[in-house]
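Entry
Fold in token form

___
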Amino acid sequence: MKFWPATKLFSLFSNDMAIDLGTANTVIYVKNRGVVLNQPSVVAVKSTTNEVLAAGDKAKSMLGKTPESIVASRPMKDGVIANFELTESMLRYFISEVHNNRRTLVRPRMIIGVPSGITQVEKRAVEDSAKQAGAREVYTIMEPMAAAIGAGLPVNEPTGNMIVDIGGGTTEVAIISLKDVVYCKSARVGGDEMDHAIVQYVKKKYNLLIGEKTAEDIKIKIGTALLDADVRKQVSVKGRDLVTGVPKTITLSDTETFEALTEPISVIIDAVRSALENAPPELSSDLVDRGIMMSGGGSQLKNLDVLISNETGLPVKVADNPLLCVVLGAGKVLDEIDNFREALMR
């Protein structure tokens, strides 16, 4: 008679999952089902009871528009947990959605992507949140490592692989070889900082106050890291005039968004340069041929790949599914955990 190890028996009955618990979005991959959830990392609760009213897209639409009785907020900041209770509530809500609001027989095993610059205290907060939300076992993996695996880089070979993962709260730049990180640079600058830069630019130049969602829309529509010589774009922006206090509409150009985004983009370029300067010579020679892979939502900013290529002299490519690289990589580790055990954080 054949006896199964308890861990293998549990995995037969539980929906083991990989989670990209990002500042901007939470993405969940379930074993044998693939990516099942991709929602904004926003939760709305009753201010008196902390009862979760909504999470994800529905909660994001409430940001800045709620009465005093409801609090809609982002519990993640700079890639780490800013509010433990709200993060746990959000995770529990998403896990329930994934399971179609049914209770599972066995608690799932989880692999969660975290920034490389995370402290032990911040790492423990992520693990505790996942356990409180219903996890049986929790493993963590560096986001750049997960992104490299998800982007299809040959991380298990003795060659240099460079990944630039630009998320909502952090930019992770890593050089990877033999399933481990050789050098990593984490900068707490990402898509959110770009939005903030646009908010501040509009406020300073036009005395107009706009929200983060408006700034994000501007970034998506006309944001650029390099100006095109023959194409000019404009967008209408609505906000509150800080002088008169009444609503006002202005026209913003791509030249202005380029100026607004100069500072956060320069921090990302510095992080890339720092990684290249600290790469061992043998791996540096690999990068001349292999180039740099970009992932994360921030990598979709227009011409950012062209700018990084111009600044480094290396070929730069954006991954096929930049928003899903971290969770797909963590999912592959989940599926082949014995093969990728070295890639997990200790």
